[in-house]
UniProtKB/TrEMBL annotation:
InterPro entries: Cyt_P450, Cyt_P450_CS, Cyt_P450_E_grp-I, Cyt_P450_sf. Belongs to the cytochrome P450 family. It is found in: Membrane. It comes from Rhododendron simsii (Sims's rhododendron). It is a single-pass membrane protein. The keyword Iron applies. Keywords: Heme, Iron, Membrane, Metal-binding, Monooxygenase, Oxidoreductase, Transmembrane, Transmembrane helix. Its main location: membrane. This is (+)-abscisic acid 8'-hydroxylase. Its EC number is 1.14.14.137. Pfam families: p450.
Amino acid sequence: MEFATVFCLIISLFISVPCLLKFLTSAGRRRLPLPPGSMGWPYIGETFQLYSQNPNVFFASKVKKYGSILKTHILGCPCVMISSPEAAKHVLVTRAHLFKPTFPASKERMLGTQAIFFHQGDYHAKLRRMVLRAFMPESIKNIVSDIESIAVGSLESWEGQLVNTFQEMKTYAFNVALLSVLGKDGVLYREELKSCYYILEKGYNSMPINLPGTLFHKSMKARKELAQILGKIISVRREMKNNHTDLLGSFMGDKEGLTDEQIADNVIGVIFAARDTTASVLTWIVKYLAENPSVLQLVAEEQDAIRKEKCGVEKVLTWADTKNMPITSRVIQETLRVASILSFTFREAVEDVEFEGYLIPKGWKVLPLFRNIHHSPDNFPEPEKFDPSRFEVSPKPNTFLPFGNGTHSCPGNELAKLEILVLLHHLTTKYRWSMVGPHSGIQYGPFALPQNGLPIRLSLKK
């Protein structure tokens, strides 16, 4: 609750005023009714409820009371929540031009205003093409062995230790992100980059007051240092004139015409985004496998079969191996569905929009509720049950949206799945683990996580 309180107050302080102005100016234009719902308390709205209780309960209770389209007020802004697959497709794909991605201004400053997340149109399409080029299978299949080395080293460092799963997975995901974005340069500058990123992270949800001594000020200083390190890497690469297939190489292509500032903003943003989401998924997988021994056994048998087929130097994993893990892949899919790391995404109406007989005023936030779609019994029978076998059949269209949908869907999903599969191969074939302390609770915030980051004790199989 303490995190939720601080988080709500911080966000409301710097986005409630512009949102309130948009709310007031749109009032005179209403011809259609607003969706049903509650706006909660002044300024704070219903943010406390959202971040202080089980998100499944919060969203389900709202939908049960008001229906699949409803209004609310969270994070300082009036919002419309939508929870049907058809509505999500409408906002994210069919009429995406009417709903732009939106983020608090402080987040844009912290990650970089030129980053891909904060744009749409031609500039966004250009950046997305460059990211996809670096993260497409043809590119990332060449770094499987490097990812495997990172995974093996990570697991070896946990042996016999009581570790915080989420924190350790963040380190693993960060190291893989550096590899995919900066190649070998990521290894050379790893400690400098890690130090800056960890300071940046601490201030991500801090009050956006840029005064000496504040977390936000420290984060902005760390962000400047990150840009300087990246500038050094860019300068060296230009002098060497070597071709690189990593993301930085894609951004630096002569034909792309990006400035150094644009490159730095996008590198910083991609690494930041790639870390916490992947680490969250891995943490939930560890929890669900421990709680479902029959599923764990199936995964371990699948991975053991792959390991036994190899001999000598061929013991290293290949891209083809990772494409021969159907049971493990379904575990990942089911984890993405049940955990729903991103409960929703933010869009903003760029003009007054008529939707299902209701008005969505210009400037209002629109939230497709991924979690609600994933937990609807109409889409997935017994939705609270962890059952990877349900993905033996493809889900109904627009009901499984772990990476979003449309032009703003996650361009790094292939890399994320690859690093998860590689780590699970070694985790399930070489180790056993037990959860320590309470593990049934959930901690809430930007991501829903197992209680206390899921402490576990890892040991080698005998």
